[in-house]
Structures are given as structure tokens and as C-alpha cells.
Design goal:
The protein has 239 residues and is an alpha+beta fold. It is 46% helix and 19% strand. The protein is elongated, with a radius of gyration of 26 Å. α5 crosses α6. Strands 1, 2, 3, 4, 5 and 6 form a six-stranded antiparallel β-sheet that branches. Strands 7-8 form a two-stranded antiparallel sheet. The chain folds into two domains: 107 residues, no CATH class; 113 residues, Four Helix Bundle (Hemerythrin (Met), subunit A) (Up-down Bundle). It comes from Paenibacillus oenotherae.
């Protein structure tokens, strides 16, 4: 009986359909996929203490369970087999457990890591020129706050630091233009837009707004953030 051969034949095709890629390591067979910026893994492993047996571990960056957890047999750990037919049946059982239970478990127990900029936002003529090309190509308009909604859609589809940097410039410039702010580069920090509405101390950090959105696109609205800041400016200036 060849466990590796049967895993490749029975498990790998089904797991590939689910987005899990196969890697063989010593004494284990690993299937992994990325969901957003988080990794989900399924591991088959053997032990010298348990002949003709394997166990299956499911894990994310924060949680870990074994296959028997899903079928309420938590006192079990190893899947045993006696011949090729029983091995195939156990592997098919794992495929079914994964599809029926583990995918839902992965969805509930996967935590997306927080994204950060890995390099400094160099605020110079070249970076501004690049950002303006980005703005034009994506039909954004610093004079029209409604185009923030277009940016939000773009950020959900494209993941690159260049896009995030250009988006931060667009957003900051939109605040500056529409709320009469000023760009300021603080020492050892990213550029910020200060004095919104001419109000000293009222400022935004565009790169942090972008990071907040890409880390939680369903819970953060850049458009609503702009509307809130605009209303604050209007309220203060009307008093």
C-alpha cells in the first residue's frame, strides 16, 4: 500500500478544486491555500508508532483541529487502514469531511493579518506624477468625492503597495482640495493633510485610512469617512 500515491490520486484532485496546493514534506503531505492574506492548511501525517495509519490536521494562523473533531469522535486521532480498499475509503472520508465541515470551519476561524506599508512613502515629484497617472487611468477625480466609491471597488480587487500608495495620494489630495487642507510631511512619518477647513489641528493620515480600509473592507467606508470629516468642518465653521 502506497499512502503517498493514493493521496495524490484521491485527495489532490478534489483539494485542488478547492484551491489547496499540494506539497510533500518528510512524514507529511501538506495542502495549503491563501484566502486574502491568510493561509489555510490541511496536513496528512504519519507516525512510526502507528502502522498503516494517518491523521489529518486543519489549521489557520490562530486555530487547529483534527479531522475527528468534525464528526464528534474527539477521542479518536488516527485513521487506520488494512488494505488498499480501506485506505481509499478513509481518504474519501477525509475529502467528504473537508467539503462538508472543514470549509465552514476555515471561514469562521481565519483571521486576516493586518497589512502595513513595507516601504516609506517617498513624497516627491516622481511619486506625485505616478499618482496622477493612476488617478487618470482609474477615472478618479480629486474634485469629486463620489469617486471615492470607485476607489473602494478598486482596492477590493487590486492588492499592491504601489496601488495603496497612489490611492493614499488621491485620497489626501481630495481632502486637501475639497476641505481646504495642506500637505505636511512630518519627520520620519508619512505625509498628512492638516488644517482641514482651516482648523488648526484637524488632520487626516491618508495612508492609515487606506490601510484601515484594506484590512476591513466590509466594515470601513472611505466615502463615509470623507462625509463625516466634511460635516465636521461645516459644523465648526458655522458656529
Amino acid at each position: 500500500m502506497n499512502l503517498s500515491k493514493e493521496i495524490k490520486k484521491i485527495v489532490t484532485p478534489s483539494f485542488l478544486e478547492l484551491g489547496f496546493e499540494y506539497t510533500k514534506t518528510r512524514n507529511s503531505w501538506l495542502f495549503s491555500r491563501k484566502v486574502g492574506h491568510a493561509q489555510q492548511s490541511i496536513e496528512f501525517e504519519t507516525s512510526g508508532w502507528h502502522k498503516n495509519a494517518f491523521r489529518v490536521n486543519y489549521y489557520t494562523s490562530s486555530r487547529y483541529v483534527q479531522s475527528y473533531y468534525f464528526i464528534d469522535q474527539r477521542d479518536h486521532e488516527w485513521h487506520s487502514f488494512e488494505d488498499e480498499e480501506s485506505l481509499r475509503q478513509e481518504l474519501l472520508r477525509i475529502v467528504n469531511i473537508t467539503k462538508e465541515y472543514a470549509l465552514d470551519w476555515f471561514e469562521k476561524n481565519t483571521i486576516q493579518p493586518k497589512i502595513v506599508f513595507n516601504y516609506k512613502w517617498v513624497f516627491n515629484e516622481q511619486s506625485i506624477a505616478n499618482a496622477k497617472v493612476f488617478i487618470e487611468q482609474n477615472k478618479l477625480d480629486v474634485n469629486d468625492p463620489e469617486t471615492i466609491k470607485r476607489l473602494e471597488g478598486l482596492l477590493k480587487e487590486v492588492e499592491s503597495e504601489e496601488t495603496w500608495i497612489n490611492s493614499a495620494y488621491y485620497l489626501g489630495e481630495l481632502f486637501r482640495v475639497n476641505l481646504s487642507g495642506e500637505w505636511l510631511i512630518k519627520e520620519n512619518k508619512f505625509p498628512v493633510v492638516i488644517n482641514l477647513g482651516g482648523i488648526v489641528g484637524f488632520e487626516i493620515e491618508p495612508h492609515n485610512l487606506i490601510l484601515s480600509f484594506i484590512n476591513n473592507p466590509n466594515g470601513v467606508s472611505l466615502y463615509n469617512t470623507y462625509i463625516s470629516k466634511a460635516q465636521t468642518v461645516k459644523s465648526i465653521l458655522n458656529h
